[in-house]
Design brief:
With 381 residues, the chain is mainly beta. The chain has three helices and 30 strands. The chain is globular and about 60 Å long. Bound molecules: beta-D-glucopyranose. The site of beta-D-glucopyranose (BGC) has 9 residues, from strand 25.
Length: 381
């Protein structure tokens, strides 16, 4: 039978029309608005991801920073549960700029001892920005870059895809590093972050997100009454400059044992050397199930609001940081950010890995692709 050409054309037109409608729907769920100008005059934007349960996540392409996460409590009331700012100035003007609020951290998250590492027999010296060490990628890390942003479709609906090319030699690191970070929010209240990186020369990479959470709501007084579980039998102890000693110690019998849920503040002032050195919790925990996105790596609960945060990751470690260096001088979109009024769960490779052969490698070789995924799931109980 000869195909009816007119019918074919008509159904083709209908398909195009439907596809157009679907695209329009997806566009609606990723809203873009101006977010101000960086100190060097670049326009940046704020993107909002929403889902069917009413959650909203706002991300700016300045530093790929999560500025807001509106999550429901046990009465279905939405509150922002991350520390952030209403415009880009909050992130560029001191003191807010030093907290890495909500940012993508790179090229090397956490610390590199004395700003030095050896790769392929060559010693590299990168700029130091925290005493004698490099912290979070240096003076101009990925947190302060303007990322290219585009909307993409993901399995979960609309996603925001950010891209940044870190040029060979930037902050002292070798290789042109192409980094893509994709944020997506699904209808089960999971914020998923997928990181991908490729390089044209051997280099080192450690990428994370530096969101500060307070499940009671950003600006609430403290996280010390919230409970945390960390699926980690071991951690990497640090010296007085927060550089790992190289040991991988058991948490058993220490105030760093969170294998059963514990109130965060219950042991934070214990007379335990590692807590004194960190001025609280500021440690890399060695996760028991690296690479397994089905096993919970960390779980935080807040009895007041009923909110629960679960973290899943392919990364081998998580830096649990209790906001010890927040000092009440920072005013953000949730009010004043006081000491220990928020916590970070920075999924990552271990700090200073290039200087510790016994840690999982952070080397990325020319032609290889780095991938990692972290999921922050919000729930109530
Ligand atoms: C570090 C802290 C630091 C904070 C903000 C965390 O990842 O471990 O020591 O104060 O980031 O810079």
């Amino acid at each position: 039978m000869k195909p009816n050409l007119r019918l074919l054309a008509l159904s083709g037109a209908l398909m195009l029309f439907t596809a157009g409608l679907v695209t329009a729907q997806k566009t609606d769920s990723l809203h873009r608005q101006p977010f101000g100008k960086t100190p060097d005059g670049q326009e940046v934007y704020l993107y909002t991801l929403t889902n069917k349960s009413g959650m909203a996540v706002k991300i700016t392409n300045f530093g790929g920073r999560v500025t807001t996460i509106m999550a429901p409590d046990h009465n279905h009331k939405l509150d922002n549960v991350v520390l952030g700012f209403d415009s880009v100035e909050g992130y560029t003007v001191k003191p807010g700029s030093s907290g890495y609020f909500g940012a993508i951290i790179g090229r090397y998250a956490n610390r590199l001892a004395k700003g030095t590492f050896t790769l392929d027999g060559q010693t590299y010296h990168v700029p130091t920005n925290e005493g004698r060490n490099m912290l979070h990628g240096g003076r101009q890390g990925f947190d302060s870059k303007v990322w290219d942003a585009k909307e993409v479709s993901s399995e979960d609906g609309t996603a925001l895809e950010l891209h940044y090319l870190s040029k060979d030699g930037e902050e002292g690191f070798p290789g042109n590093l192409n980094v893509t970070v994709r944020y997506s929010l699904d209808n089960r209240n999971r914020l998923r972050i997928d990181y991908t990186a490729t390089t044209d020369k051997d280099t080192v990479v450690n990428l994370t997100n530096h969101s500060y959470f307070n499940l009671e709501g950003a600006g609430s007084e403290t996280i010390l009454n919230e409970k945390i579980m960390l699926a980690a039998d071991r951690y990497t102890p640090v010296d007085s400059t927060l550089i790992p000693t190289g040991a991988i110690d058991s948490v058993a019998g220490t105030p760093l044992d969170f294998r059963e849920p514990m109130v965060i503040g219950s042991r934070i002032e214990d007379n335990f050397e590692q807590l004194k050195l960190g001025k609280g919790y500021d440690h890399n925990f060695v996760l028991n199930h690296p690479g397994d996105l089905t096993k919970v790596a960390a779980r935080v609960t807040d009895a007041k609001s009923g909110r629960v945060l679960e973290v899943f990751t392919t990364q081998p470690g998580v830096q649990f940081y209790t906001g010890n260096f927040l000092d009440g001088t920072v005013h953000g979109n949730g009010g004043v950010y006081r000491r220990r009024s928020a916590l970070c769960l920075e999924t990552q490779h271990f700090p200073d890995s290039p200087n510790h052969a016994n840690f999982p490698s952070t080397e990325l070789h020319a032609g290889e692709t780095f991938h990692s995924t972290t999921i922050y799931r919000f729930a109530v109980e």
